[in-house]
Amino acid sequence: MKEWAERQLRTSKLVQLCTKYILQNQVTYSQIYGLCKLTWITKSGDTISDSYIKSTKLPGLSLIFQYDFLKIPYEQVGAKIAQLLKVDPSEISDLVFGNTGYTNFYNAYRNSSEQWIYENFNEIHPLISIGIDMKSDDEAESIATSISKLPKIKKANNSQGEIAAESLLTPLFFSLDHRLRFPLINGNIGVYKLLNRLNVKQSDFVTKFSTLVSIIGKGDILTAIDLDCLGEDLPEFTNLYGNAPKRKLLKKKRDKDLTIKDEADVVCIKKSLTTTSKRLHNKLTNLLIENFPNLNLQEGNCDENMFDVEMV
For 73, phi and psi rounded to 5 degrees? Predict the structure, then answer.
């Protein structure tokens, strides 16, 4: 979970830098398409991969900067982008060559979405300027409302099939929002399951959007990244239904943080009642967090669901 969240943060930083760059001049539909491509991932994109960078990331950056990065030596790309952005190469290298992208946008619509952006450019372009400087949930919802009014994206070559605009655009605005409060609502199975558990799967896009935004700030759900990472398990981490959250994310412990989980714990603590045992418990907890940073570590948070740690 932590690694995926950091990946999303890196993607957001790259998207925001690129968006500020294109807004300095007249924006083109291809540049907006390039921004969308930066949020995409391929099967090889789960790990750092030259094929992913060359097939997806560099073409997106080429559209944004209107410069063909595939025609220069691979190792010079970072320095060239840093020059265009007027930043130190060390600030951009990890964003260019590290893991970014987080949505496996449907392949069947990847090419046709550029033409779709061209056809709806006058409606999409103003939203980019609002998105990079989003100040409130009301502004975010106004963007969601505008997205909901856009036509669906069709497949290339007039093939049958179409998808809603939010599948392409919510990842972009998820990354543009420096507040980290614009939820990701696309075709991901985890998103579908979450919306189903929240009883809004069949609702309109704006209702889904406002429902997810209303959860941010409850329990362990501090940002839209938390919404995405917890997925269908999210209801157990919030007080959505008036009950205390059943679970919470495992966090590093201090000596005074040891909590009693059940009656067996009471007996055990009565027998020992030593500071040493408490410190050992918390040390083990902290070692789990430090040694398994990529796992979703959880602990129980209410009387009927008390446990020390579960690896998800």
Answer: -55, 140
Give 245's contacts (C-beta < 8 A, 6+ positions apart).
Answer: 219, 220, 236, 237, 238, 239, 301, 302
Give me 127's structure tokens. 């939203």
- What single DSSP character describes residue 56? I
pLDDT tens for residues 107-120?
A: 999 999 999 999 99
Residue 35 has pLDDT above 90, yes or no: yes
At residue 226's C-alpha, the angle toward residues 223 and 232, to 5°, is 135
Point out which residues pair with 300 in neighbouring strands. Answer: 247
Taking CA atoms, 270 is separated from 57, 232, 258, 260, in Å, by 58, 39, 14, 11
Q: What kind and span of H or E run contains 284?
A: helix 275-291
pLDDT at site 305: 47
Residue 216 host element (H or E): none
Per-residue DSSP letter, 151: P
> What's the Cα-to-Cα distance from 163 to each of 32, 82, 125, 160, rounded to whole Å?
18, 36, 20, 11
Q: Which residue did the predictor score with more confidence, 15 or 227?
A: 15
What is the structure's pLDDT at 174? 98
Sequence ranges of the domains in the chain: 2-175, 246-311
H/E element, 207:
helix 205-215
CB atoms within 10 A of CB 69: 21
First to last CA, the chain: 9
Which residue type occupies 85?
Answer: L
Rg (CA), the chain: 22
Residues ≥6 apart with Cβ < 8 Å to 18:
34, 35, 38, 61, 64, 65
Beta strand segments in the chain, E: 153-154, 162-163, 247-249, 297-300, 310-311
Residue 44 and residue 33: Cα distance in Å, rounded? 21
